[in-house]
Amino acid sequence: MVASTTAIVEEDNADEILALGRMVSYLCQRSKSLELGMSTYFLEMALLSLAQDINQHGLPQAGAEMNGSGFAHAELH
User: Fold this and answer.
1) Domain boundaries, the chain
2) Could you tell me the superkingdom of the organism this chain comes from (predicted)?
3) Which of 15, 24, 59, 76 is the most buried (most CB within 10 A)?
């Protein structure tokens, strides 16, 4: 029971990390297109921090999300 609960929590975390990455990447793109200046800097720092966390802890497996429309290298700044 504990092992299955741990797997569910890890999968939830993977989904959250991927969703956060997509949101921050989208916000970076939008703020650049709207020329928001300093806001873009903070969004890029948030994305960099997320990328560093993924590098330190490894990218959790998210099943279909990784096979589908997960992080594409072109989306990252």
Assistant:
1) 2-60
2) Bacteria
3) 24
